Amino acid sequence: KLFSLLFSPPSQYKFRDLTIEELKNVSKTYPNFTFSMNTYTFKDGSQKDLLNFSGTVPVKYGNSYNIPIRLWILDSHPFAPPICFLKPTANMGISVGKHVDARGRIYLPYLQNWSHPKSTLIGLIKEMIAKFEEELPLYSLSSSDAARQSELLSYIAKITEGETDLKSRSKTGGKNEGCFNKITVVGAGDLGIACVLAVAAKHVADKVVLLDLSEGAAKGGSMDLEIFGVPNVEISKDFSASADSKVVVLTVNSLGNAQTYLDVIQSNVDLFRGIIPAVSHYSQNAVLLVASHPVEVMTFVSWKLCSFPKSRVIGVGANLDSERFQYILTNLLKAEVLAKDAWVIGEQGEDKVPSWTSSNVVANQTEAMAARNSREKVANRALEVLKGKGQRSWSVALSVADLTDSILKDKRKVHSVSTLAKGCCNINSEVFLSLPCILGTSGVIEMVGLEEDPRVQEKLQSSAGSIHDLQQQLKL
């Protein structure tokens, strides 16, 4: 049975070979562990058959103890950490502490900072032993204490075996998190903090979770959020806190010592490999909104690392530039008629290009050419003004709040966002470019047709080519 489980994990396991290799190493190192396939029930009541193993780990705390544990392997393993529990017997009590809660769920820095390939199950178990030797997680109960705790242990056993008591939960009348608008912002840097504040200021969501993935204790902006208590904002280092989010905003960027631009992007890719499978697992119906750099590439990477349809993976793209562009046309250049259908599309940065989704019908080709030339002059003037506007954290965050508002409220509003451009403007490669799209609760509902302009199409194809060449050099 053991070898059957090791060599034939269920088809839902996306990275079978890596999972098999990990489980083989665990079996060799800890022969007492038993492996099985059982149903696990998540916080939202959803269930999934998952590989799991249980046994004891040796801990020295004055004397030698065998601490019983059980680890559940998620189907996105090894890119998402396992779910870990103590498995106490009837004569054991749980010592609630910084690494163990009252249910026996185990929390460790190793889990919070999980990142394949440096994080492994063997490494996790070794840290678990080390932390348990600092603070023993279980204690021996007297016979009377054991009797009083039997009911609690029964409940814990149900949880660790994936059998949550849904009836008792429904009787409490608690609000199901899936029934209201919840947003998770991943990354507690300047942009992540700004996104939390912008979303809170616009009252876009009922709850905002900030996933602070930085090492060590809360610091900087995330600590200040805790100190000053922004309403409906939760700060966590545990991916499970993001469960049932309607929108997950990615703001993280690697701060490694990369020397080249390609190295910088590869560092971001490596970072995302430990994030995307986890957040997509906990919020399987969410829209992923990518604000990390470079946004076109990182949106593509996010799409490749999750199992979501292309409509539910979008980048912030040129939404900020488009809103600014339309504002400049209307308020500074007094070209309100042109602004109505004006968009900035393509690639963020110097290669972005203005375009229109419709045009007035003209009598003949000469008038059409004159109208296009006039419009191009106005657009160039607007782009000159745009050059003086940087993309600061707070301005990008306001754009993120604008996009999440359209998604959560199903506004069916048009935004210029990074979306899969294959099939548009004769682009044949899988690249993400900013294009005008109608957004709703399911992400991109429809792409809005652009006016045919050979110069615009040429620029889009050029951007697609350079982005595709860059993607080909990345290790996913």
UniProtKB/TrEMBL annotation:
The gene is Uevld. This is UEVLD enzyme. It catalyses: (S)-lactate + NAD(+) = pyruvate + NADH + H(+). Residues 1-142 form the UEV domain. SUPFAM superfamilies: LDH C-terminal domain-like (SSF56327), NAD(P)-binding Rossmann-fold domains (SSF51735), UBC-like (SSF54495). Pfam families: Ldh_1_C (PF02866), Ldh_1_N (PF00056), UEV (PF05743). InterPro entries: L-lactate/malate_DH, Lactate/malate_DH_C, Lactate/malate_DH_N, Lactate_DH/Glyco_Ohase_4_C, NAD(P)-bd_dom_sf, UBQ-conjugating_enzyme/RWD, UEV_N. Interconverts simultaneously and stereospecifically pyruvate and lactate with concomitant interconversion of NADH and NAD(+). GO terms for molecular function: L-lactate dehydrogenase (NAD+) activity. It comes from Mohoua ochrocephala. It comes from the Eukaryota. GO terms for biological process: lactate metabolic process; protein transport. PROSITE patterns: UEV.
